[in-house]
Amino acid sequence: MSPIAADPLPPQSWDEAGALRTDERAAIPADADLTPSRAGVLVILLATLPMFGQIFHYMKDLMPLWTLSKAFPILSLPLALAVFRYPMAPMSRQVLLSFLWLMVVPSFAGIFSFNQDFFTGVAAEVKLLPMLYFFSFLGLLLLLQPTLRELQTGFLLCALITFASLVILWAVIPQSWYNEHYPEGGGPLFSADHRGNRIRMPMFFGIIAIFYYYRRFLRAPRLGSLLAVVAGIVLIMVLVKTRALMVGILGVIAFNSFFATRGFLRYAISGAALTAAGVMLSLGYFGALLDSAATGFDMRFQTILKASSFLGISAMRWLFGVGTISPTSTDSLSSFFDHFFFLADITWLGIIFEFGVIGALLFLFYELRGLLFYQRALQPYIDSHFLGSLRDYLLYVLLISNLYPPTLTPGETAVILAIFGYVWLWLQQHGAEWPKEAA
User: Fold this and answer.
1) Contacts of 330 (CB under 8 A, 6+ apart)
2) Any idea what the Cα angle at residue 369 is, between residues 364 and 371, rounded to 5°?
3) Which residue has the higher pLDDT, 36 or 352?
4) Are 415 and 394 in contact (CB under 8 A)?
5) Alpha-carbon gap, residue 357 to 360, rounded angstroms
6) Residue 22, pLDDT score
7) What is the rounded distance in angstroms from the CA atom of residue 210 to the CA atom of residue 159?
8) What is the number of other CB atoms lying within 10 angstroms of the CB of residue 97?
9) Helix/strand/coil (H/E/C) assignment for every residue in 93-148
């Protein structure tokens, strides 16, 4: 079964005035797929998507699922064997070469910077293993052959489960479960701080669902789609209370609103978005963005100074990075620098510290390639709110990268790129005049 159960449309489309245009090929509408979803495919997607989406990757409170999530990049790797039965998917070489560079170079650098052996340094980079989901998830897709409707349904059901879990946990968890004192750098599922009670629920699927329904609303303004967007944003704002999430979501919504409207309406929406952002930054826990005590800015500033001083004036260190201390080592960055030293706190400088400028560029191109690939090779040929929402998530990752580094959840991007590659393979199989993006 193909990802879109429809024949390629003839080379025709309609202009804004409603006149038939024959100078360009029309996009395949995603709703052209009227094939009923297969229960077996949906069950497999619902069972595997949370692991591929790294939902439990930092939930130490759920130790069995956390352990499975850490091991899943290796356990799922045999699925990548299915990829060899098909032509090389786009982005394959970039993902593989980026992964090898980011694993090997910092591990060598750590030998000289922190006096640890190469294999101990490799253990420090296990956080990058989810990049291999590009190959294993693509292999799963090629084996299952899901339609876009089935993929979309799987993602939206995972989003519904995520939001339902948030509400249920908020309703039943006693106050004593909210941890007010936890180690620096730790992230318990339930915590209480200056923002109040928080549930640190990973929102990969929930955010994609918000982008999906907002795209539907922009195309055909309906109250149901708008309510879904508002409900999702409110639940994240009230229960999750992660500032980076809200900044990224509102940024993508404002971006899509600007380019989906014209004339006075475009500038009215832009003005409303700026006004809303200003109000939110001055109220509630968003106001803490400007509070150095609440955000730990003083501590982050000290980390920036120490990291910059350690890199010094060495071009080699800035270019290739210095690696990091493996969690399997008896030492840690905090003890080495005599400071609560966490690279995630200083985002892109932390990436440059560990991987160098070259590594930082590889992470940047990892996200940008997906954005450009969607724009050039998919959007002109398939009219899909779901694929558009996946593209929106890549933009979201870039928007929040100065608050939440992309090194923490590279598997999310890998899954999105795998879906793009899967759809591209279908396009290549069903028409010689479809895009010929280089692998």
Assistant:
1) none
2) 100
3) 352
4) no
5) 5
6) 34
7) 9
8) 11
9) HHHHHHHHHHHHHHHHHHHHHHCCCHHHHHHHCHHHHHHHHHHHHHHHHHHHCCCH
Count of other CB atoms within 10 angstroms of residue 405: 22
- Output the CA–CA distances (angstroms, integers) from residue 417 to 135, 384, 414, in the order listed: 10, 16, 5
Whether 210 and 229 have beta carbons less than 8 Å apart is answered as yes
Burial 253-274 (b: 16+ CB within 10 A, else e): bbbbbeeeeeeeeeeebeeebe
The helix (run of H) or strand (run of E) holding residue 20 is: strand 20-21
What average pLDDT does the chain have?
Answer: 84
Average pLDDT of the residues in 197-206: 93
Structure tokens at 124: 């420090």
Two tokens at 61?
A: 């409170």
CA 369, chain centre distance (Å): 14
| Structural domain boundaries in the chain | 37-429
Fill in the amino acid letter for 310: F
Which tens digit of pLDDT belongs to each residue from 46-56? 999 999 999 99
Nearby residues of 236 by Cβ (< 8 Å), 6 or more positions away: 203, 206, 242, 245, 246, 249
| Cα gap 212→225, rounded to integer Å | 9
Place of tokens 């060899």: 84
Tokens 């960055």, located at residue:
333
Helices (H) and strands (E) in the chain, counts: 17, 6
**Using CA of residue 176, residue 180, residue 184, residue 187, what is the dihedral sign?**
positive
Q: How far, in Å, CA of 234 to CA of 230, rounded?
A: 6
SS3 state of residue 196: strand
**How far is 60 from 67, CA to CA, in rounded Å?**
8
Report the C-alpha gap between 346 and 333 in whole angstroms.
Answer: 14
Q: Are 217 and 260 in contact (CB under 8 A)?
A: no
Residue with token string 């979201």:
396
Picking from 272, 280, 343, the residue whose alpha carbon sits closest to that of residue 310 is: 343
Q: What is the 3-state secondary structure (H, E, C) of 353-412?
A: HHHHHHHHHHHHHHHHHHHHHHHHHHCCCEECHHHHHHHHHHHHHHHCCCCCCCCCCHHH
pTM over 0.70: yes
Mean pLDDT is highest, among 107-116, 182-191, 308-317, 409-418, for 409-418
